[in-house]
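Anyone opening a protein record will find just a pair of labelled lines. A complete record is shown below as an example.
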Amino acid sequence: MKIPGALLTALLAVGLALPVSASARADAAADPAAWTGPLSTRGRYIVDANGNRFKLKSANWHGASGTYNGSGDITDPANHHAGELARQTPLGLDRVSIDTVIDGLADLGLNSVRLPFSNAMVHDTAPVPDLPANPDLRGKTPLQVYDRVVERLTARGFAVVLNNHTTTSRWCCGLDGNERWNTAQSEQQWQEDWLFMARRYAANKRVVGADLYNEVRRNALDDPNWGWGNDKDWQRATQQVADRILTEANRDLLIIVEGINWTGLPVDGFPHGRPTLEPARTLSHTLVDSGKLVYSAHFYGYTGPNHSGASGVGETTDPRYRDLSPQELRDVLHRQAFFISADTGKHYTAPLWISEFGEGRGTTDPASRAWFTNFVDYLIQADADFAYWPAVGFHTGGSGDGWSLLAWDTVGRRIDVLDGTDWRGPAWQRLVSAPARTGLVQPTTQWSMLNLDHADFQASRTVRALPDWNSGARKGVCPDGQRLAGLAHTGNRGLCTGPVPVPTALAAVRDETYVDTDWASGYTKVQCPQDHAVVGYSVTGAAFSAALCGKSPTPLGRTTSRTVWFDRADARPAGEPGGDFASGKLKGQCAPGEYVAGIAYTGRIGSSRTPDALLCRA
C-alpha cells in the first residue's frame, strides 16, 4: 500500500508503527526453521550437527555491553549513546517484553543473534532497576537478565553468539579503556571470564559461539599486533583462550576471531590503517578442535581501509568506504576480509562472519546510501554470514538514533526496517531472502599451520594428555585427525592436512633407527617406523630435533617413495594446496595422497640443522 506523504508525516509524528507489505511479512514472520546444534565448520561454511549449512543471518542485540558515554550521571539517559539507557541489559526491555523483541527479530527473517556483554556486567551483583515491560525480571542482576534473554532466544529457535564486546560497560569504540582484551583488566581475568561464560551455557546447544573480543585497536600508546608473541599479540591471545574454552569449558562452541580494527596514529603522514583479517593470510589459527574456527570483520561506510571514521580530530584525507566505487569497494573488501572464505583449500580458509555493518534510517547522504546498497549486494554475491548493527533502538515520533532494525517508543509502539518508510527496507529484504547454499555440506580437506615462533604449538588433544615427548624443545603437533604435510626450511613453521584417522599409537624418533633406504645420502635422516606418519616435530632454537610419528590404524604404503628437497628452493605441489604456511621461507610439501615418512637435515659446517628434505610416500 502506498501511503500519501501527508498521512505518512502524520503517522510518524505520533509514532505509530506503519504497515508492511503482506509478502514481506509472510516471508519472515515465523521463528527460525528447525536446526540441530551444536554448530561446526566445513571449509568455508558453518554447518549444524547434521552437516547442513547454517548461514548466520544475525543482528546485534546490544545493551548488556554498556551504553554509558563515560561522563556525568550514569542514571541520566542523556549520558548514554543516543539517550538509550540500557542498564547493562539487552536494550529495550524497559519498553517491551523479551518475546516482543524476539517477535520482531523473527519478522525480519533472522535466525541468530550476536549478544554483546561486558566483563563488568558479568561481575555486577547489583539488581537492575525495574524494567516495567518485564516485571518478572525484577530483582535480577544484569547477568541473570542476560540468562533470561539467552533462554528465550534459544527456546524460540535462534542461535546465540556470546560476544565479549567491552571490558567496562561503556559505549564502544574510542579511547575508552576497552581498546584491547587486556587494557582495563589482566589477560588472565579475560580468560577466566570466558571460561565462566562458556561453562554457564554449555548445556544449551543453541548457544553456538564465543566471539572473543570486539574491535581490538590502538590505545593512546600502543598498537595491537598479530604474531609478535607479546602481551599485545591478538593472534596469540585468541589462540590461547580458544584452546582453553574448547578443552576446559565447552567444546561445542564456534570460536569467532575478529581481525584487528585499527593500528597507528590517524594523522596524515603517519602510518595508520585497518589491518582487519589480512594478517591471517600468513599466520592463521589452528585450534585444538578442527572445524570450530570462524573469522569475523566489521565494515561501516563512514570508516575506510585507512580512515578511522573520525570527523575533525583524528580525521585524515584517506578515503572512506563510501567514497569507493563499487569495484574499488569489492577489491578492498576481498583483500581485507572476504578472501578468508573465497580462497578455499588454504590454511586460513574458514567461514567469514561480517558481524557488524549498518547505516542510519535517517541517512540522506547519497554516498552512504549507495555504500549500503553496494555492501549488501556484495554480501549476497559472496553468500556471506552477517550480523547487522544494531537490532534494537529507541524512537520518539519516528525519530531517534535511527540505525536499528527495530525501534520502540516509550509506550511500546514499533517502527522497523520493513515498515514501508525506511529506505533500507528493499536492500534488507533482498539480503535475508537471497539465494544461498543450503543442505548437506560434504566434509572437505582440512589445512592447518603450525607456528613454533614463540612456544610449543601442540594442537592435539591426544598429545596434550601424554607426558612431554621431547623435554626442552619447542614442539608442534597437528590436530587429531590431521598429519604433517609440509615443513619450512627455516622459521619452524609446518603445514598439516586431513582428515585422516587418529593414530593408535605415537612414537618420538630422534635418530636413524627406522631408516630403510638411503633416501637423503649424506644427511641425517629421521624416519618413522612402518605404518607411521609424521604428525609433529620439535626444534631446539632453529635446529630440528625430533619427529613425532603416529601409527595408522590401517597399513600405509611403502613401495612408492620420493625425496622432496627444499634447502635451495620451494618444493611444493602445483596450485599450492594449503596456501603459504611460511611466508618468505623455503618450503617442502608432499603431494595430496602422500604422507610424510621422514625428515632429513645436516649438521655440516654452515648449516643450522634445519629441515632440508622430506620423505614422501604414497
